UniProtKB/TrEMBL annotation:
It comes from Halomonas halmophila. GO terms for molecular function: DNA-3-methyladenine glycosylase activity; metal ion binding. It holds the Pfam family Adenine_glyco. Keywords: Metal-binding, Zinc. It comes from the Bacteria. The keyword Lyase does not apply. InterPro entries: Adenine_glyco, DNA-3mA_glycosylase, DNA_glycosylase. This is DNA-3-methyladenine glycosylase I.
Length: 179
């Protein structure tokens, strides 16, 4: 992803994400859920569009509180679909609500979304895609790959010469333990 390492530094939206989030391990289930929903919403659009709408997404989805989003009914779905601050795509909104319910189930079975991810790590990308397609909605190869790269489960978020890569390695991402 050397292009991102060249493009992002100094950019108002890409820079902070590149320097402080992209590729670093994520342990909090709400933060993992946020990353999954943002990746789903990026489908067909630019990552810059999603980053510009991120604060509106946080407000609309109550800071990606898994339990709150899992409880959303038709009123909340309608509210989200009329919110011009976010990406108003019914399939993506429905996937967010459905996937919050899935994460609740994963919590019951594995204690957390992160523990579920750790339980299946390491898998090759193709096997992750199959697992996510069986488990979640609106998760294809690119969404799964970016979600796992962005949260430290797959390598490739930064090139080896990017200064951020050393900080990521120091944070012990899951992918670094399988080399």
């Amino acid at each position: 992803m050397s292009d991102y390492c060249d493009l992002a530094p100094g950019h108002a939206f890409h820079g902070p994400y590149h320097d402080h989030e992209y590729g670093f391990p994520v342990e909090d289930d709400d933060a993992l859920f946020e990353r999954l929903i943002l990746e789903i919403n990026q489908a067909g659009l630019s990552w810059l569009t999603v980053l510009k709408k991120r604060e509106a997404f946080r407000a609309a989805f109550e800071h990606f509180d898994v339990d709150r989003v899992a409880a959303y009914g038709e009123d909340e779905r309608s509210r989200l679909l009329s919110d011009a601050g976010i990406i108003r795509n019914r399939l993506k909104v429905d996937a967010a609500i459905h996937n919050a319910n899935v994460i609740q189930q994963l919590r019951r079975e594995h204690n957390s979304f992160q523990t579920w991810l750790d339980h299946h790590h390491p898998l090759p990308h193709a096997d992750w895609v199959k697992l996510f397609k069986r488990t979640f909605r609106f998760t294809g190869p690119e969404i799964v790959g970016e979600f796992l790269m962005s949260t430290g489960y797959l390598p490739g978020a930064h090139r080896d010469t990017c200064p951020v890569q050393a900080r990521i390695l120091a944070s012990h991402p899951p992918w670094a333990h399988t080399r």
